[in-house]
Amino acid sequence: MIDLSIIIVNYNASGLVRECIKGIKQLNSKLSIEILVVDNSPRDGLRDMLIERFPDARYIPQKSNCGFAAGNNAGIRLAQGKYVLLLNYDITPLAYSIDYLYEYLEKNPKVGMVGPRLINPNGTIQQSFYRFHSLLTPLYRRLWIGRLGFGRRHLNRFLMADADTQAPFDVDWLLGACLMVRTSSIKSVGMMDERFFLYFEDTDWCRRFWKAGLPVRYVPEARMVHLHRRESAKGNGILSLARKTTRIHVASWMKYTLKWHTHGRRAV
Q1: CATH number of the domain bearing residue 9
Q2: Residue 21 pLDDT more than 50?
Q3: What is the DSSP string of 49-105?
Q4: Is the separation of the CB atoms in 85 and 180 below 8 Å?
Q5: CA dist., res. 197 & res. 96, Å (int)
Q6: pTM of the full predicted structure?
Q7: CA distances to 6, 188, 203, 241 from 197, in Å
Q8: Is residue 58 included in any domain, yes or no?
Q9: Which of 28, 159, 221, 246 has fewest C-beta within 10 Å?
Q10: Tens of pLDDT along 209-222?
């Protein structure tokens, strides 16, 4: 069996996909790795680039942009690895980071999912672990009330500002930019919920891992650089709704709320 299947979902970013795979290759990992690239924009030249630069990568074209969750699921269905790593194309893994996550799961069989410390290009630490949302969390994050005392306290709790990030620790959910899981766990928990086109598919998946008794853990010793841009957060308040990404984010939040905050299933 292959040790690890790395799944990268592309959307109009063949150049970043090229650099991401190049970074993976430069790690010279001791693991047996397959790379599966799901193409949600099959007219941006990705296929030709892969044939020329990385012929061993598996190309999985989609007829149209099916979304982040569905794109990852398309890769998961074809993955042959003992473990699966969902990796954004705008991430550069640093030395030994992928092997470290793999070995951590090997040594901690009760842990269901792990994610690395994500670092901004300027070297600062990027927020990538959280507690579950309450019903008001998105409002605190988007509106001026989040700057008031009670709003700041709420957001500090959500962002786990009290966490000691020097050693691995359990979190409610991890940013979906980089998640490593066992293939056997996916068979138990299920794949990502494709009702979430973009946003909240990672929160929902982590919640389902916890529900299945499989802890989600942040592993800061593994480090990766992430060129993250919070497109949905651009703009202020109600004006941000003019952005398509914001509208998608709000739609996903409504789906998540209906799924987890009804019939007494309140977020913790």
Answers
A1: 3.90.550.10
A2: yes
A3: HHHHH-TTSEEEE-SS---HHHHHHHHHHH--EEEEEEE-TTEEEPTTHHHHHHHHH
A4: yes
A5: 32
A6: 0.90
A7: 21, 22, 13, 17
A8: yes
A9: 28
A10: 999 999 999 999 99
